[in-house]
Amino acid sequence: xxxxxxxxxxxxxxxxxxxGTGFIGRRLVEALSAQxxxxxxxxxxxxxxxxRVRLVESLDELGADASFDVVVHLAGAPIAAGVWTRARRERxxxxxxxxxxxLLGLLERAxxxxxxxxxxxxxxxxxxxxxxxLDETAPHRDCFSxxxxxxTEAAAVPASEFxxxxxxxxxxLVLARQGGLLARLLPPFQLGLGGPLGSGRQWMSWIERHxxxxxxxxxxxxxxxxxxxxxxxxxxxxxxxxxxALAQALDRPAFLRVPRAPVTWLLGDLARELLFGGQRxxxxxxxxSGFTFRHPRLPEALTQxxx
Length: 307
Ligand SMILES: NC(=O)c1ccc[n+]([C@@H]2O[C@H](COP(=O)([O-])OP(=O)(O)OC[C@H]3O[C@@H](n4cnc5c(N)ncnc54)[C@H](OP(=O)(O)O)[C@@H]3O)[C@@H](O)[C@H]2O)c1
What we know:
alpha/beta, Rossmann fold, seven-stranded parallel β-sheet, two-stranded parallel sheet, 36% helix, disordered N terminus, binds NADP nicotinamide-adenine-dinucleotide phosphate
């Protein structure tokens, strides 16, 4: 029989988190208050995490006998921070696999290995698939977002040779006021200057941030979840519906449609893939394994995220 779905991590577990200083990682680390948490960061002095968290800038700082129950790899160069020039594409493509290499080095020297490695991929893995409903069995279409996610996922796979269960979380747009999509949308929407992007027909697969943290705990606990796991709420919406829901949550008008042609001319593939393209993703494996979303529908999730 399947164990009951867990949305809490057992106390005392040892967690190693990369990207623990980021938008998702900070919330995860906060929720791991009864666990022994180590965060790998590039800048320990700037990390501003609770003092109970051990900060390391290199895994060599860990003793030869250091071992962990759970590894969560979230760190990587942000994908939406600027136009995808050749240099930026290279930086984005290389950053997640480079850190994964360091984690693999730790596995080589640290018996016993963690029981699970939770790897942050994204719904961009599926590429641009129009209105198709995408569960974890769906194939991909090539584009830069797919290339980044494929490289991220491939870099973690060798961990399975050490007996580690590797779960590839294909994360949707994470909703919380403190960062990600909402932090970018809030200033124009609060001024009443928001509106749909282009036709507004592109899909947006989203997840409320605390639900994502709960799903990470669930994946850590459920030994059957290896490979791709979509980390999105069960009710994705199109951009038009997202715009309407956000405007309603803020009680502001949102009629200023963002025109596709000039924005795509300025931002190129970034606009084509992230603004005017999207994926309609459903969390089939999470739901089948007993995970329940606290915020399955967008209006309630926005109320929570903006609260
Ligand atoms: N937020 C979303 O909506 C979303 C959606 C889908 C997938 N994801 C994926 O989930 C993961 C976590 O997302 P997030 O929004 O929490 O990320 P984030 O805040 O942008 O960044 C996470 C951490 O990555 C490290 N980092 C930044 N630039 C780096 C670079 N050039 N090289 C190496 N490390 C770098 C930083 O840690 P230090 O400064 O401490 O080193 C940062 O705190 C990412 O891989 C992201 O692609 C996020």
